[in-house]
Amino acid sequence: MSIFEYNGSAIIAMAGKDCVAIGSDLRFGVQLQTMTTDYKKVYQIHDKLFIGLGGLATDTQTLHQRLVMRHNLYKLREERDIKPSTFAALVSAIMYEKRFGPYFASPVIAGLEPDGSPYICGMDSIGATETAKDFIVTGTNSESLFGMCESMWRPELEQEELFEVISQCLLSGIDRDALAGWGAVVYVITKDKVVARTLKGRMD
Asked: Any stretches that span the bilayer, and where are they (predicted)?
């Protein structure tokens, strides 16, 4: 088993019309043993920026703490919140810095730029970044997630449509994976607010 699959995860970020969504499953397991069903894998950096961290749970928690600290330093120095594209460069640099003993994490970043345009990107464990205009997925069942997203996503999705599409993609994807599931959480980010919803999934 790959070390990335040890705890199990499923994360999707998806762009819409002046909005962006990010969601993950809620299972925390040790290989095939489920330990808890309310484990957070998507973290809020500020009102317009979220990061999802798939991979080894201990590394994702350490990485999240480092990112919060770095954002706080940025905010003190610049007196403003960091842009998603700038934050992606920061995460990439932190990952590459540790390339000889990497964090076993695969970050997915979703946020709104200052002009209101959605920004999503993903990267591997050494910080090689890939941006997209439609969706980014990571996790133990990324093939299932990709298949669902490719069949359901379309350009210019409104806020409620985006929530519906990402929710169906997430639930359908994690139903095909023994290492992820047990419900999900989805965050929809608009210029005015962040809407968080918890989804009920199969509990087996």
From this structure: none
The 3-state DSSP class for residue 72 equals helix
Check: CB of residue 93 under 8 Å from CB of residue 60.
no
The pLDDT tens digits for 121-163 are: 999 989 899 998 889 999 888 888 888 888 988 988 888 999 9
Q: Does domain 3-199 have CATH number 3.60.20.10?
A: yes
d(CA 125, CA 104): 6
- The helix or strand, by DSSP H or E, that contains position 176, with its residue range, turns out to be none
pLDDT tens per residue, range 69-82: 999 999 999 999 89
Backbone phi, psi, residue 121, to 5°: -155, 160
Task: Write down the residue that tokens 């790959």 correspond to.
Answer: 2
Delimit the domains of the chain by residue range.
3-199
- State how far the alpha carbon of 53 is from the alpha carbons of 16, 58, 115, in Å: 21, 11, 26
Q: By the 8 A CB rule, do 29 and 23 touch?
A: no
Q: What is the DSSP letter of 182?
A: S
